[in-house]
């Protein structure tokens, strides 16, 4: 279920479970309804022209942290942070292939109104940094577990950039080839993308760093493939079993 990870006077951080949509209304479980329950009759939470107060999204199959504003002043102030690259977002992702230890991708992302975006020479400038946490070559096909940071926020940026460099996200029904997706069905998991870290400034300029542990469904799958001891110390808490 969704939950509140951090609640401040004029902004809050929510956890979005897999299978939930932020606000577009294409699936029954809507994070905007949960937000409205938390903040009550605040006008911004019901204003579709301002994305109901949400500063960014996560795709339906993905999980992780989402930032929302309670007031219009906070919404515009955080949009400035977003445009200036002051809101940091980090993810866990699992991609196909044996990726190098770290890689920066600078490829413009364009979206023509259809579902997939295109990465290449045209579109909006986009930057993603990938760091390999672990690899597994003994599985049906080679897989790389990644820590990902985006420095811009384009539609499907991580998925599009991974496909662009030939390492599509595991179980990605939109950006992987049919042959890859058919092989992925054996993995018995969802799209392997989880936003685990969100850093931003509050209204008084103080820094806030919020972390969400890897959800149980993805955690159990990843620990069946990768050794948690391979994770760097600062990420060990993400793969620690609860209870």
From TrEMBL:
Signal peptide: none annotated. One of its GO terms (molecular function) is pseudouridine synthase activity. Transmembrane segments: none annotated. Residues 12-164 form the Pseudouridine synthase RsuA/RluA-like domain. Gene3D superfamilies: Pseudouridine synthase. It holds the Pfam family PseudoU_synth_2. SUPFAM superfamilies: Pseudouridine synthase. One of its GO terms (biological process) is enzyme-directed rRNA pseudouridine synthesis. Belongs to the pseudouridine synthase RluA family. PANTHER family: MITOCHONDRIAL RNA PSEUDOURIDINE SYNTHASE, RNA PSEUDOURIDYLATE SYNTHASE DOMAIN-CONTAINING PROTEIN 1. This is YhcT protein. It comes from Symbiodinium necroappetens. The gene is yhcT.
